């Protein structure tokens, strides 16, 4: 009898977890994130692939669901992207992607913005399967960069946050249009 009860509880918890979380490529992200005194909702999830290899699953968190990337980038509201790696990637490759994203989506960037991306690149570390990078923009404070659970630094202003988030949801997202659509919940 205890066994049936335990199995029932396990099935119930699996059901509740599936309701309260997004799942993609075996990665589960919560439907909500608490940032300071605000609850952000999971807007969408996307899988970054390079050739045939799965690299990371990303989740975009916003104050409310939004399908338009221009609206997201125009709003001066808290936002967060979680990158959950499903394979090892060296810091140089990650940094290279930041600069490619900056050039593709913010072609007339200022020297100050370039310097902020230079600092971002110095904060990167080699990542392994299961490691996370988390970027949280707070209006008036900047973008907190968290690498493998450690807050490294808070960078820039809204212009930096917009350029960074445009790497995923801008007009020319580095990971591709289908990745962007996934984050937008399309």
Q: Explain this structure to me?
A:
With 186 residues, this protein is α+β, with helices and mostly antiparallel strands. The protein has a single domain (24-183), classed as Chalcone isomerase (3-Layer(bba) Sandwich). It has 6 helices and 9 strands, in the order H-E-E-E-E-E-H-E-H-H-E-E-E-H-H. The strands form 2 sheets. A 7-stranded antiparallel β-sheet has the order 3-4-5-6-7-8-9. It has a two-stranded antiparallel sheet with strand order 1-2. Helix 3 (91-105) runs antiparallel to helix 4 (111-123) and helix 3 (91-105) packs across helix 5. The longest helix is centred in the first third of the chain and has 18 residues, at 2-19. Mean pLDDT is 91; it is low at 5-19.
Give the strand content: 25-35%
* Overall morphology: globular
Number of helices: 6
Helical amount: 25-40%
| Domains (count) | 1
Taking pLDDT < 50 over at least 5 consecutive residues as the criterion, the unreliable ranges are 5-19
| Number of E strands | 9
Distance between the termini: 45 Å
| Main sheet strand line-up | 3-4-5-6-7-8-9
The CATH class name reads Alpha Beta
Radius of gyration equals 17 Å
- The CATH architecture is 3-Layer(bba) Sandwich
What features would you highlight for this structure?
9 strands, 7-stranded antiparallel sheet, two-stranded antiparallel sheet, about 190 residues, alpha+beta
């Amino acid at each position: 009898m205890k066994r049936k009860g335990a199995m029932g509880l396990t099935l119930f918890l699996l059901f509740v977890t599936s309701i309260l979380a997004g799942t993609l490529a075996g990665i589960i992200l919560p439907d909500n994130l608490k940032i300071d005194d605000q609850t952000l909702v999971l807007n969408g999830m996307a899988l970054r692939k390079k050739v045939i290899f799965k690299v990371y699953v990303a989740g975009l968190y916003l104050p409310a669901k939004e399908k338009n990337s221009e609206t997201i980038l125009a709003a001066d509201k808290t936002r967060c992207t979680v990158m959950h790696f499903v394979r090892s990637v060296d810091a140089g490759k990650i940094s290279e992607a930041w600069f490619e994203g900056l050039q593709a989506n913010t072609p007339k960037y200022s020297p100050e913005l370039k310097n902020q991306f230079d600092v971002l690149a110095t904060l990167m570390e080699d990542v392994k399967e299961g490691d996370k990078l988390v970027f949280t923009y707070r209006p008036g404070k900047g973008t907190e960069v968290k690498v493998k659970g450690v807050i490294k630094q808070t960078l820039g202003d809204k212009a930096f946050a917009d350029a960074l988030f445009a790497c995923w949801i801008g007009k020319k997202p580095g990971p591709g249009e289908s990745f962007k659509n996934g984050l937008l919940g399309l």
